[in-house]
Amino acid sequence: MAIEQDEIEKIAELARIRIADEQIGDVTRRITEILGMVDQLQAAETDGVEPMANPLDATQRLRVDEVTESDQRDAFQAIAPAVEQGLYLVPKVID
Amino acid sequence: MQWETVIGLEVHLQLATRSKIFSGSPTTFGAEPNTQASAVDLAMPGMLPVLNEQAVRYAVMFGLGIGASIGMRSVFDRKNYFYPDLPKGYQISQFAEPVVGAGKFEIQLEDGGSRQIGITRAHLEEDAGKSLHEDFHGMSGIDLNRAGTPLLEIVSEPDIRNAAEAVAYLKALHSLVIYLGISDGNMAEGSMRCDINISLRPMGSKELGTRAEIKNVNSFRFVERAIRHEFERQAEILESGGRVVQETRLYDADRDETRPMRSKEVANDYRYFPEPDLLPVVIDEAYVEEVRRGLPELPMDKRKRFVEQYQLSAYDASVLSDSPALAAYYETVVRHCSDAKIAANWVQVELMGQLNKHELGINDSPVSAQQLGELIVRILDHSISGKIAKQVFEAMWQGEGNADDIIEARGLKQVSDSGALESMVDEVIASNAAQVEQYLAADEAKRKKLLGFFVGQIMKLSKGQANPQMVNQLLAKKLT
To answer: Is B17 in Cβ contact with A73 (below 8 Å)?
Structure first.
């Protein structure tokens, strides 16, 4: 399975990873190699095999519905780049 | 051309747990920003989610409430997108193996009929935080108190055909979750939010048209308006030979229109994969049975029982069973007065009229169910007329006491003393000689009408307190 350069660009955009123009050919080639391994895996016979959600042979333990956390906003906000009126400030998301 | 609307709804329901779905932070609404956001909710490095059992239980309760298949094994997945109110960069949700599978749901229509709406699935997920785009020096403010609040996303089949059905579906859903006690259902606080998928097709066609998704609709009224608006928009496009574009739109209540979301706000490739930080959730038959045993009487069952037990109309039964609190109030009134029909009228007309006027819930009613029952008893035993009872109810509403106290204090007891009534009847006959003559000359049909005049005069004389049956009898006897 081959992957086109424009698909790499789209995935990079979705993952918010910047790939420089001179790198993109190399990245495309390396991901194509990884997809070669995926092709090999996909050749395996999987009829009747239940999809695995987690490699550990165990099930989820559940927590009792109790409030166990106290307010630690001051500690968290002390290491935030910008806060105001108790809010975390981030670059504007909507123009 | 005649168009048929095809609508499917996705409802996001906040579950009424004390703590969040994956952390021990509280879920109280309206707290100071970020005071309920722990290290897990902030996605600090190394933090791991631990699933809240109560969220699973509530989801199973909902599944049993709509007769759905329960996912005995369900799996959490990561839904990936970037937005600052989602600190991890993904939302933990369920994709291929949800906790609730397909079910069915009956809705009541205004014309008295009902329809079955299919539920595709319902799955557990975490809510995101809130972004505030007011001006913070050109930046956005983020409040993560809501991040990690448990949501049940309920996805319907495209079985809904118009705005009224959509509203009926949402109201029925709202009623069910209130009965189950799994959500406070407070739409104004965002506890129940709705995305609408809507497409048009020529009437009679089986194929689905291209749909638009309208996000972020948070009241019954807005759902109705958004659907009507979107119907007109799509019909106009199709009738002028155009094509509807599949896109996500926002409903703007201020302008009463839908508009496309900017492409930046739309991440249409979520790249789901199994959440490695959570193991598959496995529940057994014993767990499901235990939840089933704890279920209350559901709205549908209560409605049917009201029709059978109290001989109510389907409409009255559905109004009175709308919430468990209202249903309990009604049944208490019936227990005290033993007349289900009159009780239904009083609760729906007088009581609910006053409650709506003062924007009060049934639990805030200044008149208790027992008090209303006692008032109705006084109508039934002819101590007061229905008209006087309304005055007494007014006084009870103002906190003047029980029905008997008010009737006594204001001297409202119906006059059933035949001597007193007789002299009133004589007085009215004596002072209305012309009408008496008219009455005696009239035929049977006209007499009935004229009799009303005399009854009215006597009621006036007695300040409404004369026993109407006795007045009628006396008049019939005297006017010969």
So the answer is: no
pLDDT for B371 equals 95
- For residue B77, give both structure tokens: 């997945």
Q: Tell me if A87 and B132 make a contact (CB, 8 A cut-off).
A: yes
> Per residue, what are the HEC states of B263-277?
HHHCCCCCCCEECCC
Yes or no: say if B80 and B90 are a contact pair by the CB < 8 Å rule: yes
* Spatial distance between the Cα atoms of B223 and B238, rounded to a whole number of angstroms: 22
Least Cα separation, residue A22 to chain B (angstroms)? 26
Instruction: Kindly state whether residues B325 and B402 are assigned to the same domain.
Output: yes
- pLDDT tens for B85-123 read 999 999 999 999 999 999 998 888 877 788 999 999 999
Mean pLDDT score of chain A? 89
DSSP assignment of A27-40, as one string?
HHHHHHHHHHHHHH
Total domains, chain A: 1
Which range marks the domain in which residue A35 is found? 5-42
State chain B's mean pLDDT as an integer.
Answer: 91
Per-window interface: B 248-277 vs A, CB < 8 A: 262, 264-265, 267, 269, 271, 274, 276
Examine the domain organization and report whether B305 and B393 are in the same domain: yes
Res. B263 pLDDT band, cuts 50 70 90 = low
Q: Please write the tens of the pLDDT for every residue from B24-68.
A: 999 998 899 999 999 999 999 999 999 999 999 999 999 999 999
Which of A87, B139, A95, B346 lies closest to B354, judged by CA?
B346
Half-sphere exposure of B181 (CA within 13 A, CB side): 10
Q: What is the pTM of this model?
A: 0.83
Structural domain for B256, as ranges? 3-291
Q: Is A87:B135 a contact under the CB 8 Å cutoff?
A: no
pLDDT (mean) for A24-37? 91
CATH number of the domain residue B422 falls in: 1.10.10.410
* Same-domain check for residues B175 and B197: yes
**Does A93 sit within 8 Å of B131, measured CB to CB?**
yes
The last residue of one of the domains, among B291, B308, B334, is B291
| Residue A14 within any structural domain of the chain | yes
* B108/B60 same-domain check: yes
How does DSSP classify residue A21? Answer: H
Best residue of B18, B19, B130 to probe chain A, by most A CBs closer than 10 Å: B19
Collapsing DSSP to helix, strand or coil, A75 comes out as helix
Nearest to B448 by CA among B436, B439, B458, B437: B439
CA distance A87 to B128: 15
